[in-house]
């Protein structure tokens, strides 16, 4: 099965470019995350509310998070902690929430934005939700309603939007209104 898929990718130039883009996104993000994770996290916001019993901290108003080369912004950030006090889930919301990170051996940032970003710290899993957009240093972009990235397995899954409509009281119908869009910048010839 693997050989058949590989042959199909080789035969279709468009699929080659898409595969290359996704591989570049995965590799750059995985390398950069490993270096930035060792740095302190600095958080600024207009207000912060901590609930130790529930294990939740909520930051509101012009939230800015910096960790090494990583910078996230949004209007609200909710941080969930497990029973041991380890960060479990971070939810950043904004119009849009933004993320940027300088990959290793690069002078240009990877950038992402979405109305909501979720980071599952224990699983190293990131989900961009609603109007998700990832831009690479070379100008290539991937957009969709939802982009999921597993940093451990180096897998990216992008989905278009789905709309649910009620046809009658017993039935609902799902329609794919949006599609995933990938723009691959052509290399400049020298």
- CATH fold annotation: lipopolysaccharide transport protein A fold
Second rung of CATH, namely the architecture: Sandwich
Count of DSSP H/I helices: 2
Q: Report the order of strands and helices.
A: HHEEEEEEEEEEEE
Whole-number count of domains: 1
Helix content: 10-25%
**Low-confidence parts:** 1-31, 172-176
Q: Class by helix and strand content?
A: alpha+beta
Average pLDDT metric: 75
Overall geometry comes to globular
Tell me the radius of gyration. 19 Å
In the CATH hierarchy, what is the superfamily? Lipopolysaccharide (LPS) transport protein A like domain
Q: At the first level of CATH, what is the class?
A: Mainly Beta
β-strand number: 12
Strand content: over 45%
Distance between the terminal alpha carbons, to the nearest Å? 39 Å
Question: Biggest sheet, in brief?
Answer: 10 strands, antiparallel
Oligomer: single chain
